[in-house]
Design goal:
mainly beta, globular, 414 residues, 2 helices, 52% strand
């Protein structure tokens, strides 16, 4: 059911019932909408234990360490609401139920945006709250869903797990005849432990979004991590982080996004949830404009995570990380085919010996088919293969993994 309230005065109310769908429209200075989705998932996985079961598997679903696993479950329930009011104000909220999280219901995004009507080339807006950074052309669907595959890339999986600026973002937008440009400047907090899971556990590939109250599972690393969780969205050192983004769009050519992030965490400090991690990265994403319903998206991300447990700046442990992906998709009416190949890598420049070492490298291939039966019903199937080698895992020994995952997903949208 969808309810919409729009326009200027409460003078006209129309009630329509069509095929069991009720729509309420009224004239007012308020415009409210509520949308949602339910993802029901059938999965067939190899024996590697996933991170959600305490393992080092790279994928959302896995086995018990010795045998594969088949399971059917509700993978996600999400609600996304928007309330427009006044002269350019929009309140956005996104809540979810994720069975892999400790919180039954959690907040993924919540922010207030102000963008008044501006009839000029330069336009301005600001939003304040908790929001995803503008880094992905793939995750532009409802509830930060992927428009092409079930599983997100390694880069966007990490964004959904540990990166959620909680602060204010100012955007200046230029609308020209041949070029549109946006510049975003963000000051934020609440990301003091971003990079903890990436450093200790490495990259993963899944579609799970960590809520603001949730925690991220990490494998039980002998002598290092016994709590097995990271709560990434905390503020301990009272030092704001900064981010800067640039979006360029040329009609007929395409779009490119550049985004730089630095949480400026005091990595010498230990908070209530554990030691703080200094994390910074640069993300570059390009989407050329192509004919005949073809889509190509390239994404490249590199950065570092670091902990400095003493005043000696030369004594630290952490990783330098890099990941890149190329997605190709094609529309055939209601059917969409998509394939993405990607790599991920971490090297360990630590001057303090870590047990186990934090280095890893790997690659993955994802192939998906999506059928849009109607605006409310979408069926997808996906095969995902990943190969990875990590310097240390269980009992501090190197691990090599070759994982296969077949997923069939039914999505109901409203």
């Amino acid at each position: 059911m969808k309810r919409e309230i729009s326009s200027r005065y409460l003078s006209l109310v129309t009630l329509c019932v069509v095929g069991g769908t009720v729509s309420v429209q009224a004239q007012s200075d308020i415009d409210a909408s509520l949308h949602g989705l339910v993802n029901a998932r059938l999965s067939f996985a190899d024996s590697e234990r996933s991170i959600f079961d305490g393992g080092f598997g790279k994928l959302r679903y896995g086995g018990d360490g010795e045998n594969g696993n088949e399971r059917f479950r509700i993978a996600e329930i999400a609600l996304v609401g928007r309330l427009k009011f006044g002269d350019g104000f929009t309140l956005h909220g996104h809540i979810q139920h994720n069975p892999d999280q400790s919180s039954e219901v959690d907040i993924v995004e919540v922010y207030l945006r102000y963008k008044p009507v501006q009839l000029r080339q330069w336009q301005y807006s600001v939003r304040a709250g908790a929001f995803f950074p503008p880094v992905s052309f793939e995750n532009e669907g409802l509830a930060w869903g992927n428009k092409y595959t079930i599983t997100n890339s390694a880069a966007n999986t990490w964004i959904a797990e540990e990166i959620r600026p909680i602060g204010a973002e100012f955007t200046a937008e230029y609308k020209g005849e041949t070029l549109n440009a946006e510049i975003q400047a963000t000051i934020f907090g609440g990301n003091d432990r971003a990079g903890d899971a990436l450093g200790f556990r490495g990259f993963t590939l899944n579609d799970s979004k960590i809520g603001l109250l949730g925690d991220l599972p990490i494998a039980d690393i002998e002598g290092v991590r016994s709590d097995r969780v990271n709560r990434p969205f905390v503020e301990t050192d009272a030092r704001p982080g900064f981010a800067l983004g640039v979006n360029l769009t040329r009609p007929g050519l395409g779009e490119i996004r550049l985004y730089g992030y630095d949480n400026r965490a005091n990595s010498r400090q230990v908070g209530s949830e554990g030691r703080l991690w200094e994390a910074r990265f640069i993300n570059i994403t390009a989407k050329p404009e192509l004919p005949d319903d073809w889509t190509i998206i390239g994404q490249f991300q590199f950065g570092e995570t670091k902990v400095q447990p003493t005043e000696d700046e030369g004594s630290f442990f952490g990783t330098n990380f890099t990941t890149g992906s190329l997605l190709v998709a094609k529309e055939f009416g209601r059917v969409q085919l998509a394939s993405r190949i990607e790599f991920f890598d971490q090297n360990d420049p630590s001057t303090i010996a870590t047990t186990p070492p934090l280095a890893e490298d790997g690659w993955a291939l994802t192939t998906a088919i999506k059928y849009r039966a109607s605006k409310h019903h979408i069926v997808s199937a996906e095969y995902l293969y990943t190969s990875s080698d990590r310097a240390g895992g269980f009992e501090n020994t190197p691990i090599s993994q070759r994982e296969n995952l077949l997923q069939i997903n039914y999505q109901f949208r409203f």
